[in-house]
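sanity check this:
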Amino acid sequence: MSGDVESIRVGMLARRRRLSDVEVSRVSAVIVERLLGLPEMLSTRTIGAYMGIRGEVDPSPLRDDGRFEVALPVATPGEPLRFVVPDEELHSGPYGIPQPGSGREVEPCSLEVVLVPLVVADLRGNRVGHGAGFYDRTFGGCREGSGVGPILIGICHAFQVVDALEARPWDVPMDLLVTDAGLVRPGS
């Protein structure tokens, strides 16, 4: 996809906002079913996820699946994300995204799987988010040295996957993309 990252982001966000709630719910249900069938999810106990807003694929039904503890991100502008398994109702965070106010905090790099929201991704696993850098800042150092860290799974509508994006040095690529049209395993 040609063009600068910001123009790509603006176009994809506009397209996503035009989706009906019914369409977003349908696609989210398909993707949650795909996630539940992934080998990466079979032995996983604690996952990082998020609450979908503004046309994002919404993995929140996983919170009701007894196989997982779901840790949700807590955003503080300019800082890495904290992940918390909530023990009470969620409240609106600084970007209008529901997030935990209290609960058991989980070290982000110790999560087994993290479901990552995105605006656009490519077939190599490069991802463009909303531009605040939260996920890159949080997971950028997880694999340094040890080479281990969470499996990062980008989830999105099929139209959000393009052939190629220009990766920036700080970008953390996805290990897998799951869409309503299927799976993309970068590097395979």
Observations:
- The chain is about 20% helix and 25% strand.
